[in-house]
Amino acid sequence: MTATASVFTEASTSRFARIKEGDLDLQLHYNNVGQGAETVVMLHGSGPGASGWANFNRNIEPLVTAGYRVILLDCPGWSKSDPVVSEGSRSNLNASALKGLLDVLDLDRVHIIGNSMGAHSTVAFALENPERIGKLILMGGGTGGPSAFVPQPTEGIKLIGALYREPTIENLKKMMSVFVFDTSSLTEELFQTRLDNLLARRDHLENFVKSSTLNPKQFPDFSHRLHEISAETLLVWGREDRFVPMDTGLRLLAGLPNAQLHVFNRCGHWAQWEHADTFNRMVLDFLTH
């Protein structure tokens, strides 16, 4: 670990911002790490107990060391951000929250890394604010719609739903067992930390279930609008993704005019965790060239 890495922790980088954007009037939590002329925003997935830090803590140091400022946003309804019930598109709700945060932080243009729900939200933000995006990295998500090969909802999405309804250690382990390809990296400490995080905010759990009841399609299919996004985009997928099948990545590749796709073998839904070193090198190369 470098000297740069040792000076930041989740607690030391923790920040709050009040945003007012459209219908949203919320306090958002985010982590602010490093300094630099260019900023990389990271958007997490929708799993119970998720947060920016939990999703991306293996990916921050290389970016900060390379001179980027890194912002990890906790989306509305997750972690320390305010609760919310989404009756419409969660992708667009998160995009509005991100715009509100960027306005508060006076950031005109950012690169965005989005995982799963975060990738959906990145696409929604790019469609609404094309002038504010640099390069995009989308992993395990980005558009909705059915898979041509895998029954819907997928195995992983079913397990997420079960965990939201019954937040037990058993249901958490069931979900995490298909979350990654190699489960040996999933320690009891990681399970307990994740369980503590999700039980600390039962309002978030209840609101997610309520939102899904009000609108089962929280993440709309943007396939017909992908051609509008001209930004350079790196798509990253795990071949064994049991949450969002790999053919979704192929649809994104077909629709985004300036996209490239990298597929990791022996990898599930969490490419930035399972193949962190390779992922980090690839992201840095993509952002700097």
Automatic annotation (TrEMBL):
It comes from the Bacteria. GO terms for cellular component: cytoplasm. Pathway: Aromatic compound metabolism; 3-phenylpropanoate degradation. Keywords: Aromatic hydrocarbons catabolism, Hydrolase. InterPro entries: AB_hydrolase_1, AB_hydrolase_fold, Epox_hydrolase-like, MhpC_alpha/beta_hydrolase. One of its GO terms (molecular function) is protein homodimerization activity. Its EC number is 3.7.1.14. The active site is at 269 (proton acceptor). The keyword Hydrolase applies. The record marks 116 as: Transition state stabilizer. GO terms for biological process: 3-phenylpropionate catabolic process. The record marks 194 as: Catalytic role in ketonization of the dienol substrate (substrate destabilization). It catalyses: (2Z,4E)-2-hydroxy-6-oxonona-2,4-dienedioate + H2O = (2Z)-2-hydroxypenta-2,4-dienoate + succinate + H(+); (2Z,4E,7E)-2-hydroxy-6-oxonona-2,4,7-trienedioate + H2O = (2Z)-2-hydroxypenta-2,4-dienoate + fumarate + H(+). Residues 40-280 form the AB hydrolase-1 domain. Belongs to the AB hydrolase superfamily. MhpC family. Homodimer. Catalyzes the cleavage of the C5-C6 bond of 2-hydroxy-6-oxononadienedioate and 2-hydroxy-6-oxononatrienedioate, a dienol ring fission product of the bacterial meta-cleavage pathway for degradation of phenylpropionic acid. This is 2-hydroxy-6-oxononadienedioate/2-hydroxy-6-oxononatrienedioate hydrolase. It comes from Pseudomonas fragi. The gene is mhpC.
